[in-house]
Amino acid sequence: MNNYDGQNPYYGGAGGGYVAGGSPYGSQDSPSRKARGGNQTIRPVTVKQILDAQQVHPDADFTIDGVDVAQVLLIGSVRNMSTTATNISYEIGDGTGYIDARVWLDSADDESGKTTGIEQDHYVGLMGTIKVFGGKRHVSATHIRPITDGNEVQHHLLKALYVSLILRGGTPGNAPKAAGTHDDYNAGATTGATDQSAWSHLEPLQRRILEVLSSEGQGNDDGVHVTHIIKFLNGADENDFTVALDWLTDNGYVYSTLDESHYQVL
After folding, report:
1. Is 152 within a domain?
2. CATH code where residue 242 lies
3. Are residues 41 and 142 in the same domain?
4. CATH code, 39
5. Which residues form a coiled coil (predicted)?
6. Looking at residue 167, what is its pLDDT?
7. pLDDT of residue 47
8. For 50, phi and psi rounded to 5 degrees?
9. What confidence category does residue 196 fall into, taking pLDDT thresholds of 50, 70 and 90?
10. Do 53 and 121 share a domain, yes or no?
11. Residue 262 neighbours by CB distance under 10 Å
């Protein structure tokens, strides 16, 4: 499966370094902390969540489940598409509603490849920000890619639901594991069967990182520290690890929690 464009829009040109940041998906006991972290990561959402998002005034960020949301990750089917000199507009449907997504072009004959493989009646994944124009909401997409694995569609909907449940007060049965226990990973990440089927197209190191995060991050809202992840990777090269983790972050598979050294799987 193609990635979005191989670039990292979240480090602001800082490359693969781990700089201070935050996330609404860390500790859930502080409303002020949740609001503060919203701009630091990507939120998997449905169309209905975008349409129902709250905005206290025109210049404010949108909020979903009481958390500021700047970057969203959406998967849906292209129902219609139209092109102008400045942008390509896609009508996206995901079973919960419809919304337009706009990809802005650098020129009328943009050949950057940012919309390569996007076809009507096919599924796409996109990242962007919620905007309002003429009283109508749309997503201003910074990245868009075709979805070729049907499992990824269902996986995204489950993740959107899971994150929403966590932000509303947590899910039952998610007691933290005792420190130093790694049984879930050694057994093959018991809760990750669906996740792993959606990861089959990824490179081995990318899959291994996701498997570690799935097992070690269960019941841990603070995420997993990068040094702890590396311990399970059997001597993986540090540069290779950084590149793989950056790619997973860029493409919406993982997000940072307490800071840019702690990660959790989406």
Report:
1. no
2. 1.10.10.10
3. yes
4. 2.40.50.140
5. none
6. 82
7. 96
8. -65, -45
9. low
10. yes
11. 22
Alpha carbons 251 and 127: distance in angstroms, whole number: 8
**Longest alpha-carbon distance in the chain:** 57
C-alpha 139/C-alpha 141 separation (Å) is 6
Give the pLDDT mean for 24-46.
51
Question: Backbone phi, then psi, for 146, in 5-degree steps?
Answer: -75, 145
Amino acid identity at 241: F
Q: Looking up tokens 């509603």, which residue turns up?
A: 97
Residues 99 and 205 in one domain: no
Residues 238, 17: Cα–Cα separation, whole Å:
12
- Return all residues near 100 (Cβ < 8 A) that are at least 6 apart: 89, 90, 91, 92, 136, 138, 139
Q: What is the pLDDT of residues 181-195, one digit of tens each?
A: 333 333 333 344 445
The secondary structure of 172-241 as a DSSP string is: TT-PPPPTT--HHHHTT-TT-HHHHHHTTTS-HHHHHHHHHHHHHTTT-TT-EEHHHHHHTSSS--HHHH
| 127, 205: one domain | no
Note whether residue 26 is domain-resident: no
Residue 41 is which amino acid? Answer: T
Residue 263: φ, ψ to 5°: -135, 155
pLDDT digits (tens, 9 = 90+) for 83-99: 998 999 999 999 999 99
Residue-wise pLDDT tens digits, 107-160: 655 556 778 889 999 999 999 999 999 889 999 998 899 998 888 898 899 989
Count structural domains, the chain: 2
pTM of the model: 0.55
- How do 136-146 and 254-256 pair as beta strands? unpaired
Residue-number span of the structural domain to which 56 is assigned: 31-146
Residues β-bridged to residue 61:
none
